[in-house]
Structure formats: structure tokens, C-alpha cells
Amino acid sequence: MRAKPLPAETRRAVTVEAVIELAAERDPGEITTAAIASHMKLTQGALFRHFPSKDAIWEAVMEWVAERLLARVDRAAAQAASPVAALQAVFHTHVDFVTEHPGVPRMLFGELQRAEATPAKRLARTLLERYGERIRRLLEAGKAAGEVSAALDIEAAATLFVGTLQGLIMQSMLAGDLLRIRRDAPRVFAIYLAGIRSAT
User: I need a surface site. Which of 56, 65, 76, 146 has the fewest CB within 10 A?
Assistant: First the structure.
């Protein structure tokens, strides 16, 4: 018996997940539509019935990442008791997301390094902008609540928050041990927190 075809939206979601799985194992720039189809046990023709091009697949991947990452950090922040607790929750939620989906940072870094302004690259940049806005709001709230230094440079502190996460991710990837990020994250965040509390 032949397997029942998946609905279009389900097939698109499964394709995105397949790309993220492949990106965890190899350079995203080397992932071909043939490799995606093979991973999914499909023909390339079947793949292109749901996506008009490889760029459209990459765009769908960036949409998937943005939607899920931002939803998770928003939930984590909403459940926290204070702005600083929310910052910590966002930090560790991001770490968990990356360890669960190791292909995601590879895809993001790969897109941001591309010279051409593809739709996927624009989405990656928009994700970083929206993420940064959330961190700035939490830092402003922390300042208003007296949890962080009144003299804190909000823009610099938001940049450092994102950069700290990116640095942890890059070091873990270079070490070939993505779980290392979970071990290092609490100590690293403690240093970040000390810095924003004692800003002069």
C-alpha cells in the first residue's frame, strides 16, 4: 500500500524540519534540494510541488525559526516575576532552543553571511531586530524597577546580551559539543548580570 500523501502545510513543515536536521550535520550552504529530498525519501519533483525554489525553502526555515524562538522567549519572559528574572529566563530559553535545534544557529549564521539580500537573510535580520527590541524593553523595565543600574547603557547592554549568546553558541560549535552551552550559560549570565547591575 502507498503512504497517504501529507497535506500541503504538513509537508512544508516537515520539509523545514528536515532542513534544520541536515543543517545540524553539515554546512547549510552545501545542502542541496537533492539532499533534502533524499533525507525526506521524496523526489525533487515532489519537493518542488510545495516550494517554487530552494530560496523559498530557506525563507520558510527562517519564518519557522523566528516564529518559534520569539514565541518561546515571550512565554518565558511573561512567566517571570521581575524584569531581571525575565532576562535570565529568555537567556536560558534561547540556550535550550539552540540545543534542541542545533541546525538553527548554523542556518542563521549562514544566512547573515550571504552577500546577496535574499528573503531569508532579510528575515534573519528582522528576527535579530525583534529579539533585540525585546531585550531592550526588559532592560528598560529593569532600570525602572531599580533592578539594574540607573546609568546602564540600554543599547550596549542589549547588544552584549545577544553577543554573549552568540559567543556561547560559536564556542560550543567550534568545540563540537553543543551541550557545553548549557553547562556554561549559568556562569556566563551571572557575569552579564553583575555587569548590568554595576554599570557606571
Answer: 146
